[in-house]
Amino acid sequence: MSALPPCPKCQSEFTYEDGPLLICPECGHEWSADSAADSDEKVVKDSNGNPLADGDTVTVIKDLKIKGSSQVVKRGTKVKNIRLVDGDHDIDCKIDGIGQMGLKSEFVKKA
């Protein structure tokens, strides 16, 4: 017998599969089997709430000072081929003229 997750609504362990859905016979709640697996992943969103993915192109929405340097990443700078990472600065990228750096997703929007 495969181990199905308990019902997210009533925590009943008597869930069963019906095609792509999981169903709880006690409360009647139905949910997608894919959503149970995806709930553990952290979704990184830009300043407008759009989800970001590896390889996306983003635009910086405000001037960002670079610590330890007199350089500034100007508003409107396009950053191509981003990579999502864990941590406070959740975007790893390479900016032309500046180099490798980490950005916070709250300061970018999806292009």
UniProtKB/TrEMBL annotation:
Limits of the Protein YjdM C-terminal domain: 44-111
All residue ranges annotated as the Protein YjdM N-terminal domain in the record: 4-32
InterPro entries: YjdM, YjdM_C, YjdM_N
One Pfam family hit: YjdM
SUPFAM superfamilies: Prokaryotic SH3-related domain, Zinc beta-ribbon
Family: Belongs to the YjdM family.
UniProt protein name: Alkylphosphonate utilization operon protein PhnA
Source organism: Hyphomonas adhaerens MHS-3
Lineage: Bacteria, Pseudomonadati, Pseudomonadota, Alphaproteobacteria, Hyphomonadales
